[in-house]
Specification:
The complex is a heterodimer.
Chain A lengths: L8 E10 L2 E11 L4 E5 L6 H8 L7 E6 L2 E2 L4 H5 L2 E4 L11 H9 L7 H10 L15 H13 L5 E5 L7 H18 L2 E5 L3 H7 L2 E6 L2 E7 L7 E7 L1 H10 L5 E3 L2 E5 L5 H10 L3 E8 L3 H9 L5 H5 L1
Chain B lengths: L1 H12 L2 H39 L7 H17 L6 H20 L9 H6 L5 H21 L3 H5 L5 H34 L7 E5 L2 E5 L2 H29 L2 H22 L14 H5 L10 H25 L5
Helix pairs in contact in B: 1-8, 2-6, 2-8, 3-4, 6-8, 6-9, 6-10, 8-9, 9-10, 9-12
Classes of the chains: A alpha/beta, B mainly alpha.
Protein backbone atom coordinates (compact mmCIF):
# COMPACT_ATOMS: atom_id res chain seq x y z
CA UNK A 1 0.00 0.00 0.00
CA UNK A 2 1.19 3.46 -0.76
CA UNK A 3 1.47 5.32 2.48
CA UNK A 4 0.12 8.81 2.37
CA UNK A 5 0.16 8.85 6.17
CA UNK A 6 3.10 10.00 8.23
CA UNK A 7 5.06 7.21 9.86
CA UNK A 8 4.40 6.88 13.59
CA UNK A 9 7.75 5.23 14.23
CA UNK A 10 11.01 5.89 12.50
CA UNK A 11 14.37 4.26 13.02
CA UNK A 12 17.08 6.49 11.58
CA UNK A 13 20.54 5.10 10.97
CA UNK A 14 20.30 2.95 14.04
CA UNK A 15 23.55 1.21 14.98
CA UNK A 16 24.65 -0.69 18.01
CA UNK A 17 28.13 -1.93 18.76
CA UNK A 18 28.66 -4.17 21.76
CA UNK A 19 32.25 -4.93 22.75
CA UNK A 20 33.57 -4.03 19.33
CA UNK A 21 31.03 -6.14 17.51
CA UNK A 22 28.45 -4.48 15.30
CA UNK A 23 25.13 -5.97 16.34
CA UNK A 24 22.95 -3.51 14.45
CA UNK A 25 24.30 -1.77 11.39
CA UNK A 26 22.66 1.39 10.06
CA UNK A 27 19.06 0.26 10.35
CA UNK A 28 16.39 2.45 8.76
CA UNK A 29 12.73 1.58 9.10
CA UNK A 30 9.38 3.34 9.08
CA UNK A 31 6.22 2.00 10.68
CA UNK A 32 2.77 3.36 9.92
CA UNK A 33 -0.48 3.72 11.87
CA UNK A 34 -2.93 0.88 11.45
CA UNK A 35 -0.29 -1.44 10.10
CA UNK A 36 1.00 -4.66 11.59
CA UNK A 37 4.65 -5.17 10.73
CA UNK A 38 6.34 -8.48 11.30
CA UNK A 39 9.98 -8.54 12.27
CA UNK A 40 11.83 -11.63 11.17
CA UNK A 41 15.37 -12.80 11.30
CA UNK A 42 17.42 -15.81 12.27
CA UNK A 43 18.62 -16.18 15.85
CA UNK A 44 21.30 -13.66 16.66
CA UNK A 45 20.36 -11.36 13.80
CA UNK A 46 19.70 -8.46 16.15
CA UNK A 47 15.92 -8.59 16.55
CA UNK A 48 15.94 -8.36 20.32
CA UNK A 49 18.58 -5.63 20.34
CA UNK A 50 16.54 -3.57 17.88
CA UNK A 51 13.39 -4.02 19.92
CA UNK A 52 15.16 -3.08 23.14
CA UNK A 53 16.45 0.11 21.57
CA UNK A 54 12.93 0.94 20.43
CA UNK A 55 11.64 0.32 23.95
CA UNK A 56 14.28 2.54 25.55
CA UNK A 57 15.95 -0.40 27.29
CA UNK A 58 19.20 -0.08 25.36
CA UNK A 59 20.97 2.97 24.01
CA UNK A 60 21.99 2.98 20.36
CA UNK A 61 25.65 3.60 19.63
CA UNK A 62 24.47 5.99 16.93
CA UNK A 63 21.22 6.86 15.26
CA UNK A 64 17.83 7.51 16.78
CA UNK A 65 14.37 6.07 17.25
CA UNK A 66 11.44 8.45 16.82
CA UNK A 67 7.96 7.72 18.09
CA UNK A 68 5.24 10.19 17.14
CA UNK A 69 7.99 12.64 16.21
CA UNK A 70 9.74 12.43 19.60
CA UNK A 71 13.17 10.91 20.01
CA UNK A 72 13.32 7.98 22.41
CA UNK A 73 16.89 8.98 23.15
CA UNK A 74 16.40 12.71 23.79
CA UNK A 75 12.75 13.11 24.74
CA UNK A 76 12.35 9.80 26.52
CA UNK A 77 9.20 10.50 28.51
CA UNK A 78 7.33 12.15 25.65
CA UNK A 79 8.27 9.38 23.22
CA UNK A 80 7.60 6.49 25.58
CA UNK A 81 4.14 7.72 26.54
CA UNK A 82 3.03 6.50 23.11
CA UNK A 83 4.65 3.09 23.36
CA UNK A 84 3.33 -0.15 24.78
CA UNK A 85 5.77 -3.02 25.16
CA UNK A 86 5.35 -6.74 25.62
CA UNK A 87 8.68 -8.43 25.94
CA UNK A 88 8.97 -12.18 25.60
CA UNK A 89 7.39 -13.94 28.60
CA UNK A 90 6.03 -10.85 30.28
CA UNK A 91 7.60 -11.00 33.71
CA UNK A 92 5.19 -9.54 36.20
CA UNK A 93 5.50 -9.24 39.96
CA UNK A 94 4.52 -12.76 40.94
CA UNK A 95 4.00 -11.90 44.59
CA UNK A 96 1.24 -9.42 43.77
CA UNK A 97 -2.19 -9.88 42.26
CA UNK A 98 -2.76 -9.18 38.59
CA UNK A 99 -4.75 -6.12 39.56
CA UNK A 100 -1.97 -4.69 41.72
CA UNK A 101 0.47 -5.25 38.87
CA UNK A 102 -1.76 -3.20 36.61
CA UNK A 103 -2.15 -0.49 39.24
CA UNK A 104 1.63 -0.43 39.54
CA UNK A 105 2.16 0.13 35.83
CA UNK A 106 -0.80 2.51 35.56
CA UNK A 107 0.88 4.79 38.11
CA UNK A 108 3.80 5.14 35.72
CA UNK A 109 1.59 6.73 33.07
CA UNK A 110 -0.50 9.86 33.22
CA UNK A 111 -4.22 9.82 33.80
CA UNK A 112 -5.13 6.13 33.92
CA UNK A 113 -8.29 5.68 35.97
CA UNK A 114 -9.50 2.58 37.84
CA UNK A 115 -12.27 2.30 35.25
CA UNK A 116 -9.71 2.17 32.49
CA UNK A 117 -7.83 -0.61 34.29
CA UNK A 118 -11.01 -2.68 34.62
CA UNK A 119 -11.89 -1.99 30.99
CA UNK A 120 -8.56 -3.42 29.85
CA UNK A 121 -8.97 -6.38 32.20
CA UNK A 122 -12.30 -7.17 30.54
CA UNK A 123 -10.81 -6.72 27.08
CA UNK A 124 -8.17 -9.37 27.71
CA UNK A 125 -10.65 -11.63 29.51
CA UNK A 126 -9.01 -11.78 32.92
CA UNK A 127 -11.85 -10.43 35.07
CA UNK A 128 -12.33 -13.68 36.98
CA UNK A 129 -8.75 -14.09 38.10
CA UNK A 130 -7.47 -10.53 38.27
CA UNK A 131 -7.46 -10.42 42.08
CA UNK A 132 -5.34 -13.55 42.37
CA UNK A 133 -1.57 -13.58 42.65
CA UNK A 134 0.28 -13.68 39.34
CA UNK A 135 2.32 -16.59 40.71
CA UNK A 136 -0.79 -18.77 40.34
CA UNK A 137 -1.38 -17.79 36.69
CA UNK A 138 -0.76 -20.05 33.72
CA UNK A 139 1.58 -18.83 30.98
CA UNK A 140 -1.39 -17.96 28.81
CA UNK A 141 -2.90 -15.81 31.55
CA UNK A 142 0.41 -14.05 32.06
CA UNK A 143 0.47 -13.28 28.37
CA UNK A 144 -2.97 -11.75 28.71
CA UNK A 145 -1.85 -9.71 31.67
CA UNK A 146 1.20 -8.70 29.66
CA UNK A 147 -1.07 -7.46 26.91
CA UNK A 148 -3.22 -5.62 29.44
CA UNK A 149 -0.28 -3.68 30.89
CA UNK A 150 0.82 -2.69 27.39
CA UNK A 151 -2.63 -1.37 26.47
CA UNK A 152 -3.43 0.58 29.66
CA UNK A 153 -2.37 3.94 28.29
CA UNK A 154 -3.81 3.51 24.78
CA UNK A 155 -0.44 3.52 23.05
CA UNK A 156 -0.16 4.51 19.42
CA UNK A 157 2.64 2.04 18.95
CA UNK A 158 2.80 -1.48 20.31
CA UNK A 159 6.00 -3.53 20.38
CA UNK A 160 5.58 -7.27 20.77
CA UNK A 161 8.57 -9.51 21.22
CA UNK A 162 7.62 -13.16 20.66
CA UNK A 163 4.08 -12.50 21.84
CA UNK A 164 2.51 -15.91 21.28
CA UNK A 165 5.05 -17.89 23.29
CA UNK A 166 3.10 -20.18 25.55
CA UNK A 167 -0.33 -19.52 24.13
CA UNK A 168 -2.48 -22.46 23.08
CA UNK A 169 -3.81 -22.54 19.48
CA UNK A 170 -7.15 -21.02 20.47
CA UNK A 171 -5.32 -18.36 22.46
CA UNK A 172 -3.06 -17.56 19.51
CA UNK A 173 -6.03 -17.17 17.24
CA UNK A 174 -7.85 -14.92 19.67
CA UNK A 175 -4.70 -12.87 20.21
CA UNK A 176 -4.21 -12.46 16.48
CA UNK A 177 -7.79 -11.36 15.91
CA UNK A 178 -7.45 -8.90 18.76
CA UNK A 179 -4.24 -7.39 17.39
CA UNK A 180 -5.74 -7.05 13.92
CA UNK A 181 -8.73 -5.22 15.31
CA UNK A 182 -6.45 -2.93 17.36
CA UNK A 183 -4.61 -2.00 14.20
CA UNK A 184 -7.69 -1.64 12.04
CA UNK A 185 -10.09 0.02 14.47
CA UNK A 186 -7.79 2.02 16.73
CA UNK A 187 -5.12 2.71 14.12
CA UNK A 188 -2.38 1.37 16.37
CA UNK A 189 0.89 0.59 14.68
CA UNK A 190 2.09 -2.85 15.75
CA UNK A 191 5.57 -4.29 15.47
CA UNK A 192 5.80 -8.02 16.11
CA UNK A 193 8.87 -10.15 16.25
CA UNK A 194 8.35 -13.85 16.13
CA UNK A 195 9.93 -17.10 15.15
CA UNK A 196 6.56 -18.49 14.18
CA UNK A 197 6.54 -17.55 10.52
CA UNK A 198 3.04 -18.89 9.94
CA UNK A 199 1.88 -16.57 12.72
CA UNK A 200 3.53 -13.56 11.15
CA UNK A 201 2.04 -14.52 7.82
CA UNK A 202 -1.48 -14.53 9.22
CA UNK A 203 -1.11 -11.43 11.34
CA UNK A 204 0.99 -8.96 9.41
CA UNK A 205 0.51 -6.51 6.57
CA UNK A 206 4.17 -6.14 6.05
CA UNK A 207 7.37 -7.87 7.02
CA UNK A 208 10.85 -6.60 7.71
CA UNK A 209 13.67 -9.12 7.58
CA UNK A 210 16.90 -8.57 9.45
CA UNK A 211 20.10 -10.54 9.15
CA UNK A 212 23.49 -9.84 10.68
CA UNK A 213 22.22 -6.53 11.97
CA UNK A 214 21.13 -5.28 8.56
CA UNK A 215 17.67 -4.91 7.19
CA UNK A 216 17.68 -7.14 4.12
CA UNK A 217 14.09 -6.93 3.01
CA UNK A 218 10.84 -5.07 3.63
CA UNK A 219 7.79 -6.25 1.76
CA UNK A 220 4.04 -5.96 1.76
CA UNK A 221 2.35 -9.28 2.39
CA UNK A 222 -0.15 -8.58 -0.38
CA UNK A 223 2.37 -9.11 -3.21
CA UNK A 224 1.83 -12.75 -3.77
CA UNK A 225 4.04 -12.98 -6.82
CA UNK A 226 3.24 -15.16 -9.75
CA UNK A 227 1.06 -18.26 -9.22
CA UNK A 228 2.54 -21.73 -8.95
CA UNK A 229 1.17 -25.24 -9.14
CA UNK A 230 2.23 -28.50 -7.64
CA UNK A 231 1.96 -31.63 -9.78
CA UNK A 232 2.67 -35.22 -8.87
CA UNK A 233 2.62 -38.23 -11.21
CA UNK A 234 4.51 -41.49 -11.67
CA UNK A 235 6.93 -42.25 -13.10
CA UNK A 236 8.49 -38.96 -12.08
CA UNK A 237 11.17 -39.07 -14.76
CA UNK A 238 8.59 -39.03 -17.52
CA UNK A 239 6.69 -36.24 -15.80
CA UNK A 240 9.82 -34.16 -15.72
CA UNK A 241 10.39 -34.80 -19.43
CA UNK A 242 6.82 -33.73 -20.25
CA UNK A 243 7.12 -30.59 -18.14
CA UNK A 244 10.41 -29.65 -19.70
CA UNK A 245 9.11 -30.24 -23.19
CA UNK A 246 6.38 -27.74 -22.46
CA UNK A 247 8.94 -25.12 -21.49
CA UNK A 248 8.60 -25.27 -17.67
CA UNK A 249 11.44 -25.34 -15.21
CA UNK A 250 10.16 -27.96 -12.79
CA UNK A 251 11.44 -27.68 -9.23
CA UNK A 252 11.45 -30.88 -7.25
CA UNK A 253 9.29 -30.77 -4.18
CA UNK A 254 8.60 -33.96 -2.22
CA UNK A 255 7.33 -36.60 -4.63
CA UNK A 256 6.31 -34.07 -7.31
CA UNK A 257 7.31 -30.81 -8.96
CA UNK A 258 6.46 -27.17 -8.66
CA UNK A 259 5.97 -25.18 -11.81
CA UNK A 260 5.26 -21.55 -12.39
CA UNK A 261 1.80 -21.56 -13.88
CA UNK A 262 -1.65 -20.08 -13.34
CA UNK A 263 -4.86 -22.11 -13.75
CA UNK A 264 -5.34 -21.39 -17.47
CA UNK A 265 -3.06 -24.02 -18.97
CA UNK A 266 -3.52 -26.67 -16.26
CA UNK A 267 -6.29 -28.71 -18.02
CA UNK A 268 -4.14 -28.97 -21.11
CA UNK A 269 -1.17 -30.09 -19.05
CA UNK A 270 -3.26 -32.73 -17.26
CA UNK A 271 -4.48 -34.07 -20.59
CA UNK A 272 -0.97 -34.50 -21.92
CA UNK A 273 0.17 -36.23 -18.72
CA UNK A 274 -2.70 -38.72 -18.98
CA UNK A 275 -2.17 -39.17 -22.69
CA UNK A 276 1.46 -40.02 -21.92
CA UNK A 277 0.18 -42.99 -19.82
CA UNK A 278 1.38 -41.64 -16.47
CA UNK A 279 -0.50 -42.18 -13.19
CA UNK A 280 -1.56 -38.73 -11.98
CA UNK A 281 -1.78 -38.38 -8.22
CA UNK A 282 -2.14 -34.67 -7.53
CA UNK A 283 -2.42 -31.25 -9.10
CA UNK A 284 -2.97 -28.28 -6.82
CA UNK A 285 -2.24 -24.58 -6.66
CA UNK A 286 0.95 -23.94 -4.77
CA UNK A 287 1.58 -20.84 -2.75
CA UNK A 288 5.07 -20.13 -1.60
CA UNK A 289 4.92 -19.87 2.18
CA UNK A 290 6.64 -17.16 4.09
CA UNK A 291 8.89 -19.87 5.41
CA UNK A 292 10.10 -20.71 1.91
CA UNK A 293 10.77 -17.08 1.23
CA UNK A 294 12.41 -16.55 4.56
CA UNK A 295 14.77 -19.43 4.05
CA UNK A 296 15.48 -18.26 0.52
CA UNK A 297 16.26 -14.78 1.83
CA UNK A 298 18.38 -15.67 4.79
CA UNK A 299 20.07 -18.65 3.25
CA UNK A 300 18.62 -21.24 5.56
CA UNK A 301 18.89 -19.24 8.75
CA UNK A 302 22.36 -20.19 9.83
CA UNK A 303 23.52 -18.82 13.09
CA UNK A 304 24.48 -15.28 12.21
CA UNK A 305 27.91 -15.47 13.77
CA UNK A 306 29.00 -18.17 11.37
CA UNK A 307 28.03 -15.94 8.46
CA UNK A 308 29.68 -12.90 9.95
CA UNK A 309 33.03 -14.65 10.15
CA UNK B 1 7.48 10.80 41.91
CA UNK B 2 5.18 10.14 44.86
CA UNK B 3 3.38 7.55 42.74
CA UNK B 4 6.67 5.77 42.07
CA UNK B 5 7.41 5.70 45.79
CA UNK B 6 3.91 4.33 46.36
CA UNK B 7 4.73 1.59 43.85
CA UNK B 8 7.95 0.65 45.59
CA UNK B 9 6.23 0.65 48.97
CA UNK B 10 3.47 -1.56 47.62
CA UNK B 11 5.93 -4.04 46.13
CA UNK B 12 7.94 -4.08 49.35
CA UNK B 13 5.00 -4.91 51.61
CA UNK B 14 3.53 -7.43 49.22
CA UNK B 15 6.57 -9.58 49.81
CA UNK B 16 6.32 -11.99 52.71
CA UNK B 17 9.98 -11.49 53.59
CA UNK B 18 9.31 -7.86 54.51
CA UNK B 19 6.70 -8.87 57.06
CA UNK B 20 8.95 -11.58 58.42
CA UNK B 21 11.69 -8.98 58.95
CA UNK B 22 9.31 -6.57 60.64
CA UNK B 23 8.06 -9.28 62.98
CA UNK B 24 11.58 -10.51 63.69
CA UNK B 25 12.58 -6.96 64.60
CA UNK B 26 9.77 -6.60 67.11
CA UNK B 27 10.31 -10.07 68.57
CA UNK B 28 14.08 -9.60 68.58
CA UNK B 29 14.02 -6.27 70.40
CA UNK B 30 11.45 -7.47 72.91
CA UNK B 31 13.49 -10.65 73.37
CA UNK B 32 16.71 -8.73 74.02
CA UNK B 33 15.07 -6.68 76.73
CA UNK B 34 13.47 -9.81 78.18
CA UNK B 35 16.87 -11.45 78.31
CA UNK B 36 18.35 -8.39 80.01
CA UNK B 37 15.57 -8.54 82.57
CA UNK B 38 16.28 -12.21 83.23
CA UNK B 39 20.01 -11.54 83.65
CA UNK B 40 19.26 -8.67 86.03
CA UNK B 41 17.08 -10.96 88.15
CA UNK B 42 19.79 -13.62 88.32
CA UNK B 43 22.44 -11.05 89.21
CA UNK B 44 20.16 -9.42 91.75
CA UNK B 45 19.60 -12.75 93.52
CA UNK B 46 23.32 -13.44 93.63
CA UNK B 47 24.11 -9.97 94.97
CA UNK B 48 21.47 -10.32 97.70
CA UNK B 49 22.78 -13.63 98.92
CA UNK B 50 26.30 -12.12 98.95
CA UNK B 51 25.21 -9.02 100.80
CA UNK B 52 24.03 -10.99 103.83
CA UNK B 53 27.57 -11.77 104.87
CA UNK B 54 29.16 -8.36 104.30
CA UNK B 55 26.21 -6.27 105.45
CA UNK B 56 28.02 -4.92 108.48
CA UNK B 57 30.86 -3.30 106.58
CA UNK B 58 28.94 -1.87 103.65
CA UNK B 59 27.81 1.53 104.85
CA UNK B 60 28.74 3.27 101.57
CA UNK B 61 26.26 2.56 98.73
CA UNK B 62 27.50 0.42 95.86
CA UNK B 63 27.52 3.25 93.39
CA UNK B 64 30.03 5.28 95.45
CA UNK B 65 32.47 2.41 95.47
CA UNK B 66 32.11 1.99 91.72
CA UNK B 67 32.50 5.71 91.14
CA UNK B 68 35.65 5.81 93.22
CA UNK B 69 37.07 2.92 91.25
CA UNK B 70 36.17 4.70 88.02
CA UNK B 71 37.83 7.90 89.23
CA UNK B 72 41.04 6.06 90.00
CA UNK B 73 40.94 4.34 86.64
CA UNK B 74 40.52 7.60 84.76
CA UNK B 75 43.30 9.27 86.72
CA UNK B 76 45.63 6.41 85.87
CA UNK B 77 44.81 6.76 82.17
CA UNK B 78 45.35 10.50 82.30
CA UNK B 79 48.85 9.91 83.64
CA UNK B 80 49.78 8.27 80.34
CA UNK B 81 52.12 10.73 78.53
CA UNK B 82 51.19 9.39 75.04
CA UNK B 83 47.55 10.35 75.39
CA UNK B 84 46.07 12.21 72.40
CA UNK B 85 44.53 15.57 73.12
CA UNK B 86 41.01 14.56 72.11
CA UNK B 87 41.12 11.47 74.30
CA UNK B 88 42.48 13.53 77.15
CA UNK B 89 39.62 16.00 76.87
CA UNK B 90 37.09 13.16 76.96
CA UNK B 91 38.69 11.60 80.01
CA UNK B 92 38.76 14.93 81.78
CA UNK B 93 35.04 15.35 81.21
CA UNK B 94 34.39 11.86 82.54
CA UNK B 95 36.52 12.66 85.58
CA UNK B 96 34.67 15.90 86.15
CA UNK B 97 31.36 14.03 86.20
CA UNK B 98 32.59 11.32 88.56
CA UNK B 99 34.04 13.88 90.94
CA UNK B 100 30.82 15.85 90.84
CA UNK B 101 28.83 12.74 91.68
CA UNK B 102 31.06 11.94 94.66
CA UNK B 103 31.15 15.52 95.92
CA UNK B 104 27.44 16.29 95.54
CA UNK B 105 26.24 12.76 96.27
CA UNK B 106 24.43 12.41 92.94
CA UNK B 107 23.67 8.79 92.22
CA UNK B 108 23.88 7.53 88.60
CA UNK B 109 21.22 5.31 87.06
CA UNK B 110 21.63 1.66 87.90
CA UNK B 111 22.53 -0.74 85.11
CA UNK B 112 19.09 -2.29 85.13
CA UNK B 113 17.02 0.79 85.75
CA UNK B 114 14.29 1.87 83.38
CA UNK B 115 16.22 5.07 82.65
CA UNK B 116 19.36 3.18 81.69
CA UNK B 117 17.33 0.96 79.36
CA UNK B 118 15.81 4.01 77.69
CA UNK B 119 19.23 5.62 77.36
CA UNK B 120 20.64 2.50 75.68
CA UNK B 121 17.71 1.85 73.37
CA UNK B 122 19.67 2.91 70.28
CA UNK B 123 21.12 -0.61 70.49
CA UNK B 124 18.16 -1.78 68.38
CA UNK B 125 19.78 -0.04 65.42
CA UNK B 126 21.97 -3.06 64.64
CA UNK B 127 18.95 -5.22 64.01
CA UNK B 128 17.22 -2.49 62.02
CA UNK B 129 20.40 -2.07 59.97
CA UNK B 130 20.55 -5.77 59.17
CA UNK B 131 17.04 -5.74 57.73
CA UNK B 132 17.47 -2.39 55.98
CA UNK B 133 20.60 -3.79 54.27
CA UNK B 134 18.65 -6.82 53.06
CA UNK B 135 15.97 -4.62 51.53
CA UNK B 136 18.47 -2.15 50.03
CA UNK B 137 20.46 -4.98 48.48
CA UNK B 138 17.43 -6.52 46.81
CA UNK B 139 15.32 -3.57 45.76
CA UNK B 140 17.12 -3.05 42.44
CA UNK B 141 18.77 -6.46 42.08
CA UNK B 142 15.54 -8.50 42.25
CA UNK B 143 13.99 -6.44 39.43
CA UNK B 144 16.84 -7.69 37.28
CA UNK B 145 16.82 -11.28 38.51
CA UNK B 146 13.01 -11.54 38.15
CA UNK B 147 13.13 -9.92 34.71
CA UNK B 148 10.61 -7.27 35.76
CA UNK B 149 13.14 -4.53 35.06
CA UNK B 150 12.10 -4.54 31.38
CA UNK B 151 8.51 -3.82 32.31
CA UNK B 152 9.62 -1.19 34.78
CA UNK B 153 11.93 0.77 32.50
CA UNK B 154 10.01 0.65 29.22
CA UNK B 155 7.78 3.41 30.62
CA UNK B 156 7.58 7.14 30.16
CA UNK B 157 9.56 7.68 33.36
CA UNK B 158 13.20 8.57 33.35
CA UNK B 159 15.48 6.07 35.03
CA UNK B 160 16.84 8.40 37.67
CA UNK B 161 13.31 8.88 38.92
CA UNK B 162 12.82 5.14 39.21
CA UNK B 163 16.08 4.80 41.12
CA UNK B 164 15.24 7.73 43.39
CA UNK B 165 11.92 6.13 44.29
CA UNK B 166 13.74 2.93 45.15
CA UNK B 167 16.28 4.68 47.32
CA UNK B 168 13.57 6.68 49.05
CA UNK B 169 11.63 3.48 49.76
CA UNK B 170 14.76 1.89 51.23
CA UNK B 171 15.50 4.89 53.45
CA UNK B 172 11.87 5.05 54.55
CA UNK B 173 11.93 1.35 55.39
CA UNK B 174 15.12 1.84 57.42
CA UNK B 175 13.57 4.76 59.26
CA UNK B 176 10.40 2.83 59.94
CA UNK B 177 12.28 -0.16 61.35
CA UNK B 178 14.49 2.07 63.49
CA UNK B 179 11.47 3.88 64.87
CA UNK B 180 9.51 0.66 65.41
CA UNK B 181 12.46 -0.94 67.21
CA UNK B 182 12.86 2.15 69.36
CA UNK B 183 9.18 2.21 70.33
CA UNK B 184 9.20 -1.50 71.19
CA UNK B 185 12.36 -0.98 73.22
CA UNK B 186 10.82 1.93 75.16
CA UNK B 187 7.56 0.07 75.78
CA UNK B 188 9.45 -2.99 77.04
CA UNK B 189 11.62 -0.77 79.27
CA UNK B 190 8.46 0.56 80.90
CA UNK B 191 6.92 -2.90 81.28
CA UNK B 192 9.96 -4.80 82.54
CA UNK B 193 12.12 -2.33 84.44
CA UNK B 194 11.43 0.01 87.32
CA UNK B 195 12.85 3.52 87.57
CA UNK B 196 15.49 4.41 90.14
CA UNK B 197 16.50 7.67 91.80
CA UNK B 198 19.61 8.25 89.71
CA UNK B 199 20.47 11.29 87.66
CA UNK B 200 22.07 11.56 84.23
CA UNK B 201 24.92 14.09 84.09
CA UNK B 202 26.74 15.73 81.25
CA UNK B 203 29.46 18.36 80.93
CA UNK B 204 28.13 21.37 79.11
CA UNK B 205 30.31 24.47 78.66
CA UNK B 206 32.74 23.30 81.33
CA UNK B 207 29.97 22.84 83.89
CA UNK B 208 28.31 19.63 84.99
CA UNK B 209 24.60 19.70 84.21
CA UNK B 210 21.66 17.36 84.74
CA UNK B 211 19.88 16.03 81.68
CA UNK B 212 17.05 13.66 80.96
CA UNK B 213 17.92 10.20 79.62
CA UNK B 214 15.71 10.96 76.63
CA UNK B 215 18.29 13.38 75.28
CA UNK B 216 21.03 10.78 74.75
CA UNK B 217 18.43 8.17 73.80
CA UNK B 218 17.08 10.21 70.91
CA UNK B 219 20.36 11.75 69.79
CA UNK B 220 22.01 8.32 69.74
CA UNK B 221 19.11 6.93 67.76
CA UNK B 222 19.53 9.65 65.16
CA UNK B 223 23.27 9.04 64.97
CA UNK B 224 22.67 5.31 64.61
CA UNK B 225 20.28 6.09 61.77
CA UNK B 226 23.06 7.95 59.96
CA UNK B 227 25.15 4.78 60.17
CA UNK B 228 22.21 2.73 58.90
CA UNK B 229 21.80 5.04 55.92
CA UNK B 230 25.48 4.77 54.99
CA UNK B 231 25.46 0.96 55.10
CA UNK B 232 22.16 0.69 53.25
CA UNK B 233 23.44 3.09 50.60
CA UNK B 234 26.46 0.83 50.19
CA UNK B 235 24.24 -2.25 49.84
CA UNK B 236 21.99 -0.32 47.44
CA UNK B 237 24.98 0.56 45.28
CA UNK B 238 26.36 -2.98 45.16
CA UNK B 239 22.88 -4.31 44.42
CA UNK B 240 22.31 -1.92 41.54
CA UNK B 241 25.81 -2.15 40.09
CA UNK B 242 26.23 -5.92 40.24
CA UNK B 243 22.51 -6.78 40.07
CA UNK B 244 23.08 -9.36 42.77
CA UNK B 245 21.27 -9.02 46.05
CA UNK B 246 23.22 -11.84 47.64
CA UNK B 247 26.54 -10.19 46.86
CA UNK B 248 25.29 -6.88 48.22
CA UNK B 249 24.05 -8.41 51.47
CA UNK B 250 27.18 -10.50 51.92
CA UNK B 251 29.59 -7.67 51.24
CA UNK B 252 27.75 -5.16 53.41
CA UNK B 253 27.53 -7.49 56.37
CA UNK B 254 31.12 -8.60 55.92
CA UNK B 255 32.23 -4.99 56.09
CA UNK B 256 29.92 -4.31 59.01
CA UNK B 257 31.32 -7.18 61.07
CA UNK B 258 34.99 -6.96 60.13
CA UNK B 259 35.14 -3.19 59.62
CA UNK B 260 36.02 -2.28 63.21
CA UNK B 261 38.78 -4.90 63.32
CA UNK B 262 40.26 -3.63 60.08
CA UNK B 263 40.12 -0.04 61.26
CA UNK B 264 41.68 -1.03 64.57
CA UNK B 265 44.55 -2.66 62.70
CA UNK B 266 44.93 0.39 60.50
CA UNK B 267 44.33 2.88 63.30
CA UNK B 268 47.95 4.00 63.36
CA UNK B 269 47.69 5.16 59.76
CA UNK B 270 46.01 8.28 58.52
CA UNK B 271 43.88 6.31 56.06
CA UNK B 272 41.83 4.67 58.82
CA UNK B 273 40.13 8.02 59.39
CA UNK B 274 38.79 8.07 55.87
CA UNK B 275 37.20 4.62 55.80
CA UNK B 276 33.45 4.63 56.24
CA UNK B 277 33.40 1.53 58.40
CA UNK B 278 35.74 3.14 60.93
CA UNK B 279 33.05 5.44 62.19
CA UNK B 280 30.35 4.31 64.54
CA UNK B 281 28.73 7.61 65.44
CA UNK B 282 26.99 6.29 68.55
CA UNK B 283 30.24 4.94 69.94
CA UNK B 284 31.88 8.28 69.18
CA UNK B 285 29.13 10.16 70.99
CA UNK B 286 29.64 7.86 73.98
CA UNK B 287 33.31 8.73 73.99
CA UNK B 288 34.60 5.42 72.65
CA UNK B 289 37.06 6.28 69.92
CA UNK B 290 38.77 3.70 67.81
CA UNK B 291 41.04 6.17 66.08
CA UNK B 292 42.67 9.15 67.69
CA UNK B 293 41.60 12.69 66.95
CA UNK B 294 38.38 11.74 65.22
CA UNK B 295 35.59 14.08 66.23
CA UNK B 296 31.90 13.52 65.69
CA UNK B 297 31.53 16.20 62.99
CA UNK B 298 34.56 14.85 61.14
CA UNK B 299 33.19 11.30 61.19
CA UNK B 300 29.76 12.52 60.09
CA UNK B 301 31.36 14.41 57.19
CA UNK B 302 33.31 11.32 56.09
CA UNK B 303 30.14 9.21 56.21
CA UNK B 304 28.18 11.85 54.30
CA UNK B 305 30.83 11.97 51.59
CA UNK B 306 30.73 8.17 51.24
CA UNK B 307 26.94 8.13 51.01
CA UNK B 308 27.10 10.72 48.21
CA UNK B 309 29.74 8.71 46.32
CA UNK B 310 27.72 5.49 46.68
CA UNK B 311 24.63 7.23 45.34
CA UNK B 312 26.44 8.87 42.43
CA UNK B 313 27.86 5.49 41.37
CA UNK B 314 24.41 3.88 41.62
CA UNK B 315 22.80 6.60 39.49
CA UNK B 316 25.51 6.60 36.83
CA UNK B 317 25.46 2.84 36.40
CA UNK B 318 21.70 2.46 36.58
CA UNK B 319 20.84 5.18 34.09
CA UNK B 320 23.48 4.18 31.55
CA UNK B 321 23.00 0.45 31.68
CA UNK B 322 21.69 -1.50 28.71
CA UNK B 323 18.98 -3.81 29.94
CA UNK B 324 19.77 -7.25 28.60
CA UNK B 325 18.23 -9.35 31.36
Amino acid sequence: MANQTEPIVELRHLSKTIRGKKIIDDLNLQLFPGQVTGFLGPNGAGKTTTIRMMAGLMKPTSGEVFVAGKSVQNEFEAAMSNVGVIVENPEMYKFMTGYKNLVHFARMHKGITKDRIMEVVRQVGLENRIHEKVGTYSLGMRQRLGLAQALLHNPKFLILDEPTNGLDPAGIREFRTYLRSLAEKAGVSIFVSSHLLSEIELMCDRIAVIQNGKLIDIREMKDEGRPHHYIEALPAKQLRAILESKGYEPAESGAGFIIEEGVERIPELVKSVIAGGLDLYAVRPHRKTLEDEFIELTGGGQIAEAVAK
Amino acid sequence: MLKLLQNEWMKLWNKKATWVMAILLVVGVAGMLGLTKWISTVEGNRAESGNVQVEGQADAPDWRMQAEAERNGISAQLADPDLSSSREAELKEDLQIVEYRLAEDVEPHGNYSRQQMIKDSSGIATLAMLFAIIVAAGIVATEFSDGTIKMLLARPVRRWKVLTSKFAATALFGALLTLAGFVVSIVMSYILFSPDGGTELVVRGGEVAEISVWTPAISHLLLAFVNIIVYTTFAFMIGSVFRSGALAIGLSLFIFFTGSTVSALLSRYEIAKYLFFSHDLVALAQGMTLIEDVTLPFAAAVLGAYAVVFLVVSYLVFSKRDVTA
